[in-house]
């Protein structure tokens, strides 16, 4: 994870030496942490607003920082953005903790992500980047592992707020493990598997969340079996404030178990962008035949559910079942 971009941040993250942990954890490098400390006062005073930055009504919103940056802050934001742009997580997940410290808290991280979102689009060939708002929910059934499949494919998620012991474990699954789960799912057609893999491993000009999610979780013929195979391979990580991960969306799938109580809109900070690695991914468009195939599957599932008047299925034993009430 060595990054040589200027004198201030030679390495954005560093590995935490903890032999007792099941996973390899990372946190801010000393250089990055020093920079963030120096930025804290300016970040604390930044006000943001939500704006529509692309046509998608559901996913086109982003927090925009309403500020004129000082030269020092502007230089620091460029330095961190350059690190993220050059960073190469490849197929490995970068697990992060202790991202909030001292006076650098949730508000400062929120301002940082808003400024980085704007900076990452400048002169780097990025299609779009955004610091996406998260909707609050009064009740929660969890969210199965999925790929957001935005047009931009790097995902930087940080837990910035939690009620005491609210649960909501982080769930993670690599693309390789998903393919193994699908291979073991005997009732799942090869065509459905191929469409999922194609959309997860390539870029698209449009969000493709619904297509993949529906093929995985809303099919009466195979979703139950696939969920069981996925559940056997999941990484489950107890959540705490300041924890997060950096992934290439689609090469990793992410989700969470159910939260006890409401989901706060400030629970998760999400920065989505492209970098040098993801910009090299080829574009793919589904054929008309593939789109018709998906449509027919969904129509069939809808007819069967309506005929049987089956109740919605819910989160159960750390697994998400199809037809859950998921927004």
Task: Tell me what you see in this structure.
It contains eight helices and 13 strands. The chain has helices at residues 30-44, 71-86, 106-119, 175-183, 190-200, 209-217, 223-231, 288-308; strands at residues 13-15, 25-28, 48-52, 61-65, 94-96, 130-131, 143-146, 154-159, 170-174, 235-237, 244-248, 252-256, 268-273. The chain has a seven-stranded mixed beta sheet with strand order 1-2-5-11-8-13-6. Strands 7-12-9-10 form a four-stranded antiparallel beta sheet. 37% of the residues are buried.
Share of helix, binned: 25-40%
- In round numbers, the mean pLDDT is 81
Terminus-to-terminus distance: 35 Å
Order of secondary-structure elements = EEHEEHEHEEEEHHHHEEEEH
Q: Which stretches are poorly predicted, pLDDT < 50 over at least 5 residues?
A: 1-9, 306-327
Search tags:
327 residues, alpha+beta, 8 helices, 32% helix, disordered N terminus
Question: How are the elements arranged and paired?
Answer:
Layout: E1 13-15, E2 25-28, H1 30-44, E3 48-52, E4 61-65, H2 71-86, E5 94-96, H3 106-119, E6 130-131, E7 143-146, E8 154-159, E9 170-174, H4 175-183, H5 190-200, H6 209-217, H7 223-231, E10 235-237, E11 244-248, E12 252-256, E13 268-273, H8 288-308
Parallel strand pairs: 2-5
Antiparallel strand pairs: 1-2, 3-4, 5-11, 6-13, 7-12, 8-11, 8-13, 9-10, 9-12
Task: Give the structure's gist in a few sentences.
The chain has 327 residues and is of the alpha+beta class. The chain has helices spanning 30-44, 71-86, 106-119, 175-183, 190-200, 209-217, 223-231, 288-308, and strands at 13-15, 25-28, 48-52, 61-65, 94-96, 130-131, 143-146, 154-159, 170-174, 235-237, 244-248, 252-256, 268-273. The strands form 3 sheets. A 7-stranded mixed β-sheet has the order 1-2-5-11-8-13-6. It has a 4-stranded antiparallel β-sheet with strand order 7-12-9-10.
């Amino acid at each position: 994870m060595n990054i040589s971009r200027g004198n201030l941040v030679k390495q954005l993250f560093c590995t935490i030496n903890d032999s007792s942990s099941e996973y390899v954890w990372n946190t801010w490098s000393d250089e990055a942490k020093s920079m963030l400390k120096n930025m804290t006062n300016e970040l604390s005073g930044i006000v943001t607003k939500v704006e529509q930055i692309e046509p998608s009504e559901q996913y086109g919103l982003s927090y925009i920082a309403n500020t004129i940056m000082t030269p020092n802050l502007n230089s620091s934001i460029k330095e961190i953005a350059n690190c993220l742009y050059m960073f190469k997580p490849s197929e490995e997940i970068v697990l992060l903790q202790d991202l909030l410290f001292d006076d650098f808290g949730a508000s400062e991280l929120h301002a940082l992500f808003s400024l980085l979102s704007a900076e990452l689009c400048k002169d780097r060939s990025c299609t779009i980047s955004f610091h996406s708002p998260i909707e609050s929910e009064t009740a929660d059934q969890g969210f199965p592992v999925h790929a957001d499949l935005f047009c931009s494919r790097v995902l930087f998620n940080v837990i910035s707020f939690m009620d005491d012991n609210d649960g909501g474990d982080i769930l993670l699954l690599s693309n390789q493990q998903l393919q193994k789960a699908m291979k073991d799912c005997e009732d799942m057609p090869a065509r459905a598997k191929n469409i999922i893999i194609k959309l997860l491993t390539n870029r698209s000009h449009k969000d493709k969340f619904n297509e993949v999610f529906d093929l995985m979780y809303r099919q009466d013929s195979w979703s139950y079996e696939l969920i069981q195979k996925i559940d056997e391979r999941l990484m489950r990580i107890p959540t705490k404030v300041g924890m997060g991960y950096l992934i290439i969306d689609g090469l990793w799938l992410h989700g969470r178990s159910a939260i006890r109580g409401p989901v706060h809109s400030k629970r998760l900070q999400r920065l989505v962008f492209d970098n040098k690695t993801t910009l090299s991914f080829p574009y793919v468009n589904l054929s008309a035949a593939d789109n018709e195939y998906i449509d027919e599957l969904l129509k069939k599932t809808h007819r069967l559910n309506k005929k049987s008047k089956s109740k919605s299925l819910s989160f159960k034993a750390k697994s998400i079942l199809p037809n859950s009430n998921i927004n």
